[in-house]
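Subject: Protein entry, chain in single-letter code together with its fold tokens

Area: Proteins and the way their chains fold up in space.

Attached in line: The record itself begins immediately under this heading.
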Amino acid sequence: MHHAWLLHGPRGVGKASFAKEVAAKLLADAISDALSSTDFVVDLDHPTAKLIAARSHPDYQLIEREIWADATHLVPYADRKGDETRARSIRINQIRWLGPILSMAPSMADRRVIVIDAADDLEPPAANALLKMLEEPPASTIFLLVSHAPGRLLPTIRSRCRSLAFARLDGDIMAAILAEQAPHLDDMTRAVVLAVAAGAPGAAMSVIETDVPGIDAALREIAVTGDPFNVLRLDLAGKLALKAALPRYEAFLRRAPAFIASQARTRSGPALAVAVEAWEKARQLADVAIPQSLPAESVVFEIAGRVATLAPRDASAKA
């Protein structure tokens, strides 16, 4: 098996879940001859599954944006309450900490698995440090890199990975998942969730949890009225800039460019050109907002301003 895999595709289609299931399967098979199943499901009672769930498996490492007590120390898992704010990137220390682990042989069998969720979140020094490990892969180690935007990764990282693409799910499957996971939704909210999620089950759950229908309603009003006095933009920016609103802010960064794109599909001529320009600028800003730690309030105000350009020319006069 190749030592590094790039699992890429739209956010929320199950790449990270798949990576973790593969990791559990590989590690479970390494210590047990009894696992003859050809799928990737490991029983929750299996020792490997229990150790992974407890974050204590010596041959499994999950690298993700973390919760830091200070510049060099993580908040211990046992002390976490679940509502802390994660760092905006995967820091170089997290990759460096792999060094001593990779210098030793696996502990429980002959295999080690490292999942990076998501490789897009690696700060530049961390990406360079990971590249060195991929160029000289430790024996018996498999890297599973999750990526929502592989084009943003270092070309040298991509070149050292086998590629496995994930596609969006079709409407019928999405409707079935939503009916099972969120049966309490009314028909109108369900329709909005399905439209916004666009074939990504994880995105659908995020939509429900972060009130994306509310964000959509605000964007729609800005696009219709043009928000000539900046009242709507200032209100939205103020709400999403709060520390507790980070999940909604991240949802806004994903949704706003998609909202503009959906508006562009209904236009032609000069109106289409305006929408395309608004989409390009909103997408570019949304892509760098978190990696570059840009002020959330300014980012929301600027992107909402791009949405305002979609308004009919006479909207401001009517307002």
Observations:
- The longest strand covers residues 141-147.
- The two ends are 63 Å apart (CA to CA).
- The chain has a mean pLDDT of 90.
- The first helix runs from residue 15 to 31.
